[in-house]
């Protein structure tokens, strides 16, 4: 009898197993990580459908939102990038759950071109849009900008603050956005005791160069005990937070671009951010001379920095007196901390609304910045510090930091965001030069590219540059005429500051990088200035 009972149990078990085998496989729902569980792709973890609420409707996953934060003139002067002096707690905290690209580069170190590079996905040498005053739709009337691509695919798109460069006879692109652009100031002073516009305020208000140059210079910094919202970035953060609250209840996915002005000159920043720093402890440039053997037209003096009151020209003082250098560096770092606090407000609101669980967040600096290194200030050169940018990317439910030295450039962002949001890119009128790095995000051992590419025109010549993990080659070609090409080659093995041009025709790095540069398309001629909009 005992043996019979065992046999019956065994028979029942086998019948049950056969019945289970006939059931269809249980489908699996791919949901964002909520518990930190690792998934091979780094994006999601699998949950069986029967683990969900039985009333849950099985439908296509929601499209991801995009919050794109743009910061003017921000070099990687942030704690997460190893800057020991920067007070940037909000960005540093955000970076704890983000990809931190330590070798990201602009395609041209100037505001207008770098933003065209981003929003068109095109290098300056492909479009010929190197300078202010060139409306891209004069030359590419059917261009599809990055936000416009999202808009055409069902997204609500909006811009708050500085996104497209507005000023210097350059304007916003209205058809990129679902709603009017919420513009604010770049040049601003809280002290209203001096009446009338400064020359830089006039230029950013799209007054002509002739009219602007007849005006007085503005001061390069302002330190007053005022609320954050006294200046544009505080107002931009406030408006962005309000817009996120409005977006919380809508089903339509969004692409929200939020642009901040500081640490662009003038360093008009509330006093409490200046007070974060002891000026005696701030880093001073270790070298204030041009790199040995560098080409004279490759370097920079004067320019943007001397458009402000009290800043000496190079003929008057080269380098600047230490007191001026220290004050400017202090103002820059105060600007970094100020914009850090404003970005923190936006990110906090994203979290408070719950939108963060379905939103990609990108933080991008439009180009790098020089703070007296090699005696140079601001940008507008092909050197490392003017072209290396902060780039941070957070994916929904990402729970770790990934620091990487994989090479990326600004034009890569357009195709990457489109792929992440599963919006195929059709043929565009403007050239698309970027390469998506989604494959790297899915598998961090995947390489992106062997080198990045950028350019800058100076003194009638165009410097085209390629930068691999160790070297940068710059080829200087005349914009007109047939003068021979001149070269600079820099080695960054021992630091990110150019010290000596090591170019020689038989240098192995030159031979390798020249082949890469020669494989790139020829540079487009500079476009003519567009008609001024009155």
The overall strand count is 18
For the termini, the CA-CA separation is 103 Å
- SSE class: alpha/beta
- The number of helical elements comes to 15
Q: What is the helix fraction of residues, given as a range?
A: 25-40%
- Specify the biggest β-sheet: 8 strands, mixed
User: How much of the residues is beta strand, in percent?
Assistant: 15-25%
Mean residue pLDDT: 90
Radius of gyration: 26 Å
* Uncertain parts: 1-59
Oligomer: single chain
- The geometry reads as globular
Descriptive overview:
It holds the Pfam family Sulfatase. Residues 1-21 form the signal peptide. InterPro entries: Alkaline_phosphatase_core_sf, IDS, Sulfatase_CS, Sulfatase_N. The protein is 27% helix and 18% strand. The protein has 15 helices and 18 strands. The chain is globular. The longest helix has 31 residues, at 322-352. The chain has 534 residues and is α/β, with parallel strands linked by helices. α9 (232-247) packs parallel to α11. Strands 3, 4, 5, 7, 9, 12, 13 and 14 form an 8-stranded mixed beta sheet that branches. Strands 15-16-17-18 form a 4-stranded antiparallel beta sheet, covered by helices on one side. It has helices at 2-22, 89-94, 111-120, 124-127, 136-139, 146-152, 199-204, 209-213, 232-247, 271-274, 322-352, 384-387, 413-420, 438-442, 508-519, and strands at 28-32, 44-48, 65-71, 99-105, 156-161, 221-224, 254-260, 267-270, 359-365, 370-371, 377-378, 388-394, 402-404, 408-409, 452-458, 461-467, 471-478, 486-491.
